[in-house]
């Protein structure tokens, strides 16, 4: 029987490695796995629909739901999750000692609609007294000049592009912006430049407190299928979802192998055990039911920040085939 040949553009993750090396194969599908940087995958999929299946920013995907016809349908596969309190960087001379000091400041973001930045702005507003409209936003390339928003952003907020040839990392170090919200560590901080620091000194403690208070482990990315493909072959949603779960489960097993550490982290096993104690055994959960609260908070932030016209609910996001399964 002939199999469907699909391209899948995604990052280099332990939780998708079995799909890339072929040890997990979706029923009825042969995958060509394209290992690409997330920014490239998102840009090419949103602008040119180059792949059959792709990892995508949750924020970008939600924004596409306002389009008619909708270009993609998502699977509840969360290839990236990360607490984001550590993604707030400061110029050391900006006079920011507490989160509320961000009010009235100049804050950079590589793109306003980045999922990480939606989470940061929402958390700062809801938990730290920094209303979304209390700062002036500056967008552009973090390390390389010329970055643009992948999709149209029209929020009514004060969002300004940085000057041609400028980068957010250099502007932060030079004091031309006061803070930076970003998913990537800016080069001055990475290089030990004393002019750049983090808002929260003990990031891990703050993020543990946040999880204890909210139960939220933020979701960054989903997996999307081009809608025309999905409409022609509705079965691919369940087939891909099952395979992604098997690949994730394979990573759960492999990462806990203490015979030889898979990653260059001396206390990897101990950190895994602590994560299970704090977040639960299925700490990297897939599926709608286990993540409905987290998704609903994100969707509220997305709508409040003017990035989606409709206040969506979590069930609006995913192929319905992935929300139920047969039992024997």
Describe this structure in words.
It is a single chain. This protein has helices at 17-21, 38-48, 58-64, 115-128, 168-174, 187-190, 203-214, 227-232, 235-255, 268-279, 292-304; strands at 4-10, 29-35, 53-57, 72-81, 88-91, 106-109, 136-139, 159-161, 179-181, 196-198, 219-226. Strand 1 (4-10), helix 1 and strand 2 (29-35) form a beta-alpha-beta unit. The longest helix is centred in the last third of the chain and has 21 residues, at 235-255. By secondary structure, it is α/β, with parallel strands linked by helices. It contains eleven helices and eleven strands. The model has no long low-confidence stretch (mean pLDDT 95). A six-stranded mixed sheet has the order 8-7-6-9-5-10. It has a five-stranded mixed sheet with strand order 2-1-3-11-4, sandwiched between helices.
Summarize the structure.
By secondary structure, the protein is α/β, with parallel strands linked by helices. The chain is built from eleven helices and eleven strands. It has helices at residues 17-21, 38-48, 58-64, 115-128, 168-174, 187-190, 203-214, 227-232, 235-255, 268-279, 292-304, and strands spanning 4-10, 29-35, 53-57, 72-81, 88-91, 106-109, 136-139, 159-161, 179-181, 196-198, 219-226.
């Amino acid at each position: 029987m002939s199999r469907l040949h699909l391209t899948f553009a995604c990052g280099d993750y332990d939780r998708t490695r079995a799909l890339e090396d072929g040890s997990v194969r979706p029923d009825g599908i042969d995958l060509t796995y394209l290992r690409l940087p997330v920014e490239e995958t998102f840009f090419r999929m949103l602008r040119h629909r180059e792949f059959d299946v792709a990892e995508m920013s949750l924020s970008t995907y939600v924004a596409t739901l306002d389009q008619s016809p909708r270009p993609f349908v998502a699977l509840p596969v969360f290839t990236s999750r990360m607490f984001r309190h550590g993604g707030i960087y400061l110029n050391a001379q900006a006079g920011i000692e507490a989160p509320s000091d961000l009010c009235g400041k100049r804050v950079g973001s590589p793109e306003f609609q980045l999922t990480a930045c939606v989470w940061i702005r929402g958390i700062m507003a809801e938990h730290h007294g920094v209303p979304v409209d209390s700062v002036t936003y500056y967008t552009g390339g973090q390390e390389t000049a010329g970055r643009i928003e992948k999709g149209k952003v029209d929020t009514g907020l004060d969002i300004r592009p940085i000057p041609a040839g400028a980068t957010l990392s250099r502007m932060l170090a030079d004091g031309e912006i006061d803070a930076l919200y970003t998913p990537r560590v800016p080069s001055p901080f990475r290089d030990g430049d004393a002019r750049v620091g983090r808002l929260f000194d003990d990031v891990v403690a703050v993020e543990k407190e946040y999880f204890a208070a909210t139960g939220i482990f933020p979701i960054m990315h989903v997996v999307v299928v081009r809608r025309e493909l999905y409409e022609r072959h509705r079965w691919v949603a369940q087939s891909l979802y099952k395979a992604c779960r098997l690949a994730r489960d394979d990573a759960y097993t492999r990462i806990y192998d203490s015979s030889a550490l898979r990653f260059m982290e001396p206390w990897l096993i101990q950190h895994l055990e602590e994560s299970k104690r704090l977040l639960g055994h299925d700490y990297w959960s897939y599926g709608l039911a286990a993540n409905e609260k987290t998704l609903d908070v994100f969707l509220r932030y997305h709508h409040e920040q003017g990035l989606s016209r409709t206040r969506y609910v979590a069930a609006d996001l995913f192929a319905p085939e992935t929300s139920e399964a047969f039992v024997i």
